[in-house]
Design a protein that fits this description.
With about 600 residues, this protein is α+β, with helices and mostly antiparallel strands. Helices cover about 30% and strands about 25% of the residues. It binds zinc ion (ZN).
Amino acid sequence: MIEYSISSENPAGHYFDISIVIPNPDPTGQLLRLPTWIPGSYMIRDFAKNIVSLEANSDGKILQIEQLNKSAWQVSGCKVNLKITYRVYAWDLSVRGAHLDTTHGFFNGTSVFLEVVGQSDKPCRVEICRPQCPGSQEWSLATTLPVEDRDDAFDFGFGFFRAENYAALIDHPVEMGVFTRFDFIAGGIRHDMVLTGKFECDIERLKNDLTRICEYHIAFFGLPAPMKRYLFLVMVVGQGYGGLEHRDSTSLLCSRDDLPHPLQTDSTDEYINFLGLCSHEYFHSWNVKRMKPKVFEVPDLTQEVYTPLLWAFEGITSYYDDLALVRSGCIKREDYLRLLGQTITRVQRGYGRKLQSAAESSFNAWTKFYKQDENAANAIVSYYAKGTLIALCIDLKLRQISNHRVSLDDVMRGLWQSYLAGKQGITEYQIQDHISELAGVDLSSFLDRLIYGTEELPLVELLNSVDISLIYRAGSGQQDKGGKEEGEPLNVSAGIQVNEISAGLEVVSVRENGAGQAAGLSAGDVIIAINGLRADMKSYQAWLKRSSVCSHHKLHVFRRDELMSLELELTQAEQNRAILHLPDTMSPHLDQWLSGRPH
Ligand code: ZN
C-alpha cells in the first residue's frame, strides 16, 4: 500500500510537508507527477510550480531525481521502499488549490499528492497531521476521505485515512481549523456543513434550507442517494465566491454577507445566490461526478481534455440549481423568475452569443471561458448561462409537445438510470438521442439549433406555453442585471462598461458595433472629461440620462499616457434586459413546472 503523510512544520510560511512511501517502486525508474488541472475547473494550473523542494531516498540513502517536465520526475535505481519527501507552497485562497496559515489549512489532493505513475489504481493510506503552530491543538479536520484511525474516534479529528486509488485521493478535499459545524439528515444520509472564517450566521435557518435542497435533489433522482455521506466545506471571507464539486463533498468560498444574519428575516439576493451555489454543487453529485462525458471517465490530468458537453453538465446543473430552490420552497416563484430573467439578460447582453455556440463554448473552455479578457462579451457565450437557457428550452419544449406529460426531469432520471445500469460515460449525441426518444419525435434539428447554433433561442414562445410572459426593455445603467424593473430605462447607449478610478472613468470593455467602438474607445482608456467637464460615475450616469439618440459628444481620454480627443455619437439603447411575469392565475401546467410535481 502506498503511504502518504501530510504535515506542516511551518504553517506561517504556508508550507505543507509531504512524504510518500512506495513499497514496490518501478525498478526501471519510478515516475511521479502532479496534475496540471483539477477536475471541475477547466484550466491548466500547473500545481507543480508550488513544489519548492523534492528528495528521494531508500533505507537512508539519497537517490537521484531527474525532472522530466514541468510536472513530472523520475527516480531510478530503487527496488523497495522508496521514500519521497517534498514541500508545497500553499497560498491560493480558492476552492481549486491549497491554502495554509496559522488560522486554517485547506487542500485538494491535486495540489499536494504526487501520483505514483503505474500504481494509480492501488489503494493508499494517508496520514494527515496537525500543523505545528500555536493554537492548532484547537483545530479539527473535515474530509470525506474514509477514516482508518483518527484522534477523535467518530469525527473531525486528525489521523489516518484511506483512498481506494489515486482518483479518489484527489477527489476528497480537506479543511482544517476551528469550525462552525452542523449536520442534518437528508434522503437517509448524513450531511455536514463545516464553515471556517469570521462571520455571524443564522445556522438554524441555513440548516433548514439546505435540508430542503438536498432532500429535493435526492428525491429528484430517486433513492438511494449515490453517496454514503456528504460534506459542504465553506471558507467564509470578506469578498469571495466559488465552488467546486467532488464525489462526496464540495468546497465553497463565500462572502460573509452571503450568509443569513441572525437578525435578518428576509432573503437577500446574496443569500439566495449562496443557496443556489450549494444547490449547484450538490446536483453535480449526479451530473458530472457520476454521469459524465466519456472523456472525463479517466481524464488525462497532464493536459486539456476537450468536450463539447459542458453546456449539459454545467448548463443543466445551473438550470436545476435555482429551480430546486423554488421547488423545495426555499424561495418564492417571483424570486425564481427574477433569477431566470437575470440569466437571460446575461446571455442577451453579450454579442458573443452571435459568434459562439454553447458546444463551442464548452470545447474551448480551457482557453476562452476560463481565460476571459476585455473582449470576452463580444467573442464568447457562457456555457453556464446559455446552457441554462438551453435546458429551459428543452424542458418547456418537451412539456409542450407531450401535452405536459414529459419533461427534462424525465430525461435526467432516464440518463441516471442508464448510468446506474452500465456506469458508462456519456457520448456527444447521447443526451440528444435520449430526449428525442422520450419525446417520441425526432427533435434533433431543434436541439442542434440550440446547442450548435448561434441564432436566438425561442424563449418568448416557449415561456408563453406555460403562461409566463417575457419582455425585454433597455437597462437603467450598466449595473442593471435585468430580471426586475429597476429604475428608468436609458434611452441611449455609449456601448462601453466603465469603472470609476481616481483619474476618471476607466473603460473596462467596449461593445461590438457600439457607440464607443465607433468613436475609437478601447478597453483600458481613461475618460477624463465629457464635453469639457471632469468625468466621474455620477456625471457619466447623469449625462446618459439626459442625452438623446444620435447626439454628439466630445470626450477627452488617456490611452496609456497619451491624451486623445474623440467624438462619440450616442446610439439607441438595446432592449436586452429580460423581465418575466407570472400570470394572475396559476395554470396547472405552470404549477407543474414550478413545483416539479409529476404529471
Ligand atoms: Zn458547476
